[in-house]
Amino acid sequence: MSAPIIPSKSWQDWKQMLHGFWPGKPKFTEDQYPSFEGKVIIVTGGNTGVGYETVKSLAGSTKAKLYVFSRNEEKTLEAIKQIQLEVAKEYNVSNTDINFIQIDLSDLDTIKPAAEKFLSQESRLDLIIHNAGVMMPPLGSKTKQGYELQFGTNVIGPHLLQRLLDPIFIKTAKTNAPGESRIVWVSSSAHQLAPLGGFYWEDVNFEKTNAADSLIYGQSKAGAIMQARTWTRKHNTGSQIISSSLCPGFLNTDLQRYATSFEKVLYSLFFHPRRMGAYTELFAAFSPDVKDGSHSISFGTPGHARKDIIQDEACDKLWDYLTEATNPYM
Questions:
Q1: A GO molecular function for this record (predicted)?
Q2: In this predicted structure, what is the pLDDT of residue 272?
Q3: Among 222, 216, 75, which residue's Cα sits nearest to residue 137?
Q4: Which one of 52, 77, 144, 255 is least enclosed by Cβ atoms within 10 Å?
């Protein structure tokens, strides 16, 4: 078994990495977001970190009906109450419609029940932001189904959720203007650390291979970019739907819960507040400058993904794997 190969970075790759430290102020902000009245949005992991800020911004600056898909009911309901208090204070908006549906993306058995609950309550879905994720847990961490935890949570779980929501999402898109319906896949600049072609298929769960935490995390974030690039091509929706990926930015968030104390100090010194990441996610969600299959970076700037992971052959290989892995849970 050969060791994973990480391609060298181009000058443009390095330039984009440096942009994460000095991104400038967001230019696409709340005053430019559409009303979205009568429309429905899902944000996974919207109870904490960047997801929390994204839900808050949506609640304060749009009239959409919002759903937070997350794992912990008690913490999420408390987060929703706090979001509503902050929205009333910061945006002077008090009639927010924020709802909770329980899901655990690391357990495929929970995903269909979550989708079915949503479908029992709604007849449309206009926007989904696949925000939830896990970063660098202890080596050897697994999902309930035995996948490497980041691969399972950041890639396989969202793939199944999207498949289950595709029918209502595509149906809704036909009633919207072209490009109004969108899927936002939250990736990371860490995709630059992924193996050649995005995935180390010789040992995709890293059960026999010693690899750096960053490479394993990077592989999962390459997956989000590949899903974004492939979704529209597989669904033949033309220009009606935009599926894109992003790196929200170099942010100091709860995502670093597994970091060492020293790393957390560095993050607090050099990384940006989590609220700024919401501007990147909502740039991908609403900006007219975002195109299907594109990749955005902090805090609402067009970026690029590593060339070897956006090739159709590499993307199709991942897509086929994910489809086979999730078929039993459909």
A1: oxidoreductase activity
A2: 83
A3: 216
A4: 144
Q: Residues 194-243: pLDDT tens digits? A: 999 999 999 999 999 989 999 999 999 999 999 999 999 999 888 899 99
Starting at the earlier edge strand, list the strands of the sheet with 301-303: 98-102, 65-70, 40-44, 127-130, 181-186, 241-246, 295-297, 301-303
Q: Which two tokens stand for residue 323?
A: 């489809």
Catalytic residues: 187, 217, 221
List the domain range (segments joined by +) for residue 90: 11-329
In a domain, 128, yes or no: yes
Say which CATH number the domain at 145 has.
3.40.50.720
Residue 5 lies in a domain: no
Q: Which two tokens stand for residue 101?
A: 């549906």
pLDDT at 135: 92
CA angle 229-231-233, nearest 5°? 80
> What's the CA gap between 321 and 329, in Å, rounded?
14
Closest CA to 225 of 257, 190, 263: 190
Tell me, yes or no, whether 160 lies in a domain.
yes
Residue 242 carries which side chain, given as an amino acid letter? I
- The answer as to whether 35 is a domain residue is yes
Q: What 3-state DSSP class applies to 258? A: coil
